[in-house]
Design goal:
This protein has helices at 8-18, 37-44, 60-72, 90-93, 116-122, 158-181, 206-209, and strands at residues 2-3, 29-31, 49-51, 79-81, 100-104, 127-134, 144-151, 185-188, 191-194, 197-198, 204-205. By secondary structure, it is of the alpha/beta class. The relative contact order is 0.15. Bound molecules: 5-O-phosphono-beta-D-ribofuranosylamine. The site of 5-O-phosphono-beta-D-ribofuranosylamine has 15 residues, from helix 1, strand 5 and helix 6.
């Protein structure tokens, strides 16, 4: 798993593994930020950690090559981006297409990029949410897998909305990983498929998947 910050999604994976909702073993947690709280969560759970500090590299490509090398030392079947706040280039992504997942805090295809909750509020949206998707070289543009929606409430700020959306993130992300581990989820012919059925462009609604 790759993290840059708080690591609440990492924690959800740790808890899902412990609770047998996710039949997986987290091989390593790598961060680009030495101070990421997610690293402490990993240590507390007995998971190996590594740091590849992006400030030590002069381009995205050289950073990605170092990240690739660090991860290559662990035999992992699936790479989970969990609040990993670096744009990855094809150097890292291409060898792992189909084995690389991200969670994005918006109802993709709406609001790729940053500040998603504020943008949803500014637009007057009545719903916000999060989407798990396969990662391709197109930023936040890979095929969606599962999407959870929450209602925007009167008086919501980006922070209150983010907190409610994150509770959903912690449910949908381990679920998508479990589908992958069961061999049900794959990326084929440019589309995400669950049980060989093409997933719609906004992902499977969590309400129907739960
Ligand atoms: C989440 O909101 C996720 O959607 C976004 O970054 C945040 C990471 O939070 N990609 P955490 O580090 O997992 O707590």
């Amino acid at each position: 798993m790759l993290v840059s910050g708080e690591g609440s999604n990492l924690q959800a994976f740790i808890d899902a593994c412990a609770g047998r909702r996710l039949d997986a073993h987290i091989g390593v947690v790598i961060s680009n930020r030495p101070a990421a709280a997610g690293l402490e969560r990993a240590v507390a759970a007995g998971i190996p950690t590594a740091v590849v500090d992006h400030r030590a590299y002069d381009s995205r490509e050289t950073f990605d090559a170092a990240l690739h090398q660090a991860l290559a030392q662990y035999a992992v079947d699936l790479v989970i981006l969990a609040g990993f706040m670096r744009i990855l280039t094809r150097v890292f992504v291409e060898p792992r297409v189909g084995q690389l997942l991200n969670i994005h805090p918006s109802l993709l295809p709406r609001y790729r990029g940053l500040n998603t909750h504020q943008r949803a509020l500014d637009a007057g949206d009545t719903e916000a949410g999060a989407t798990v998707h396969f990662v391709t070289t197109e930023l936040d543009g890979g095929p969606p897998i599962i999407q959870a929606r929450v209602a925007v409430l009167p008086g919501d700020t980006a922070e209150t909305l983010a907190r409610r959306v994150q509770r959903q993130e912690h449910l949908i992300y381990p679920l998508a990983a479990q589908w992958f581990i069961e061999g049900r989820l794959r990326l084929a012919d440019g589309g995400a498929r669950l049980d060989d059925t093409l997933i719609p462009p906004t992902g499977i609604p969590y309400e129907t998947a739960a």
